[in-house]
Design a protein that fits this description.
Blueprint (H helix, E strand, L loop, with lengths): L1 H13 L1 H4 L1 H4 L7 H25 L5 H26 L3 H22 L1 H17 L7
Helix pairs in contact: 1-4, 4-5, 5-6
Length: 137
């Protein structure tokens, strides 16, 4: 189960490529603003990847990496939304940014509230203990 959440973190982080305008091709690459958004996008993807790897390996620092990933993801979403409003692009990008911000907010809550982490961890252990191999059925 831990590995599945790690994959979910990695997928959420990698989809930041779709909303960052320099990657999506909706902003000219020669501007300083495009450079800032590009750096934010790459940093967000790298930190999400590190958090996913740490979670999948059950490393103790995955919580800190997840917090940083969520915070950086929210900053990236805010920057992309600000540029989108200033440039006047489409509504679909705004919905994508909103979905990414909601995912980052949920991750931030999960990584910050210890009761949620322990409850989720207990539930994972319970499910793993009850799961029987297919060949025993």
């Amino acid at each position: 189960m831990r590995e599945r959440l790690g994959v979910a973190l990695f997928v959420l982080g990698s989809t930041f490529l779709w909303i960052v305008p320099p990657f999506a091709g909706s902003l000219e690459r020669a501007t300083p603003l495009a450079d800032v958004l590009h750096i934010l996008g790459v940093a967000t993807i790298v930190v999400f990847g590190a958090a996913a790897w740490a979670l999948a390996r059950d490393l103790p620092w995955w919580v800190h990496a997840a917090r940083w990933a969520a915070a950086l993801g929210l900053v990236t979403c805010a920057a992309v939304a600000a540029v989108d409003v200033a440039v006047g692009h489409d509504v679909l990008l705004g919905l994508d940014v909103l979905a990414h911000a909601a995912g980052c907010g949920a991750l931030l809550v999960l990584a910050t509230v210890p009761a949620l982490r322990s409850t989720l961890g207990d539930r994972w252990r319970e499910l793993e203990a009850r799961r029987r191999p297919w060949y025993l059925d």
